[in-house]
TrEMBL record:
Gene Ontology terms: cellular component: cytosol
GO molecular function, one term: guanine phosphoribosyltransferase activity
Pathway in which the depicted protein is active: Purine metabolism; GMP biosynthesis via salvage pathway; GMP from guanine: step 1/1; Purine metabolism; IMP biosynthesis via salvage pathway; IMP from hypoxanthine: step 1/1
Protein family according to the UniProt entry: Belongs to the purine/pyrimidine phosphoribosyltransferase family.
EC number per UniProt: 2.4.2.8
InterPro entries (alphabetical): HGPRT, Hxn_phspho_trans, PRTase-like, PRTase_dom
Compartment list: Cytoplasm
Pfam families reported in the protein's UniProt record: Pribosyltran
Keyword Heme applies: no
Reactions that this protein is recorded to catalyse: IMP + diphosphate = hypoxanthine + 5-phospho-alpha-D-ribose 1-diphosphate; GMP + diphosphate = guanine + 5-phospho-alpha-D-ribose 1-diphosphate
Residue ranges crossing the lipid bilayer per the database entry: none
Domain Phosphoribosyltransferase stretches: 13-159
Species: Alteribacter keqinensis
Protein name per Swiss-Prot or TrEMBL: Hypoxanthine phosphoribosyltransferase
Length: 179
């Protein structure tokens, strides 16, 4: 699996340091507010698993599965709910966790949906932000790292469902996706 990686963009240590920093920041912000932390499947799972252990105040967890990429490297532009939340967001402080914001289509859809469902506040925390990929005007409230306009994998991010279990963020060798 690691042979398929051309270069490591963000190391495991850098990710863990950043996650600890974000955890401290979110602890301060959400102390006493019992936010609903929504992980967006499947990419946010490693980030969510690590980050929630660094948030030192009560949180409720839920998961939502939305998809717009299928097995492609470019968003189809159509966001589909594959699995909805189990919890009502009405009146709640909602904190959405994402692995990456690229075109921004997934997140702008979710933010609008949660506002329509009467969430009290909606904030976005993403590990990675790819600003050059944007197709809609969307700025995350908190972003761990900015990444260049390249297809990245690892730490939740996949190519054709592989590489999510790498502990770092890397760039694939072109021959992997060129067939
Ligand atoms: O800003 P965007 O262009 O919308 O891209 C970001 C979304 O794309 C990926 O999810 P994907 O739909 O591939 O599902 P996955 O998390 O299961 O891989 C990623 O996890 C984000 O949810
Ligand atoms: O660069 C990316 N890698 C993996 N999944 C993604 N979904 C949006 N952008 C990306």
């Amino acid at each position: 699996m690691r042979d398929d990686i051309q270069s490591v963009l963000i190391s495991e240590e850098e990710i863990q340091e950043k996650v600890a920093e974000l955890g401290r920041q979110l602890t301060e912000e959400y102390e006493g507010r019992f936010p609903l932390v929504v992980g967006v499947l499947k990419g946010s799972l490693p980030f969510m698993g690590d980050l929630i252990k660094k948030i030192d105040t009560h949180v409720e967890l839920d998961l939502m599965d939305v998809s717009s990429y299928g097995n492609e490297m470019v968003s189809s532009g159509e966001v589909k709910i594959v699995k909805d939340l189990n919890t009502s967001v009405e009146g709640r402080d909602v904190l959405i966790l994402e692995d990456i914001i690229d075109s921004g289509l997934t997140l702008s859809y979710l933010v609008e949906l949660f506002k329509y469902r009467k969430a009290k506040t909606v904030k976005i925390v993403t590990l990675l932000d790819k600003p050059e990929g944007r197709k809609v005007d969307l700025v995350p409230d908190v972003a761990g790292f900015s990444v260049p306009d390249e297809f990245v994998v690892g730490y939740g991010l996949d190519y054709a469902e592989r590489y999510r279990n790498l502990p770092f963020i890397g760039i694939l060798k072109p021959e992997i996706y060129q067939g």
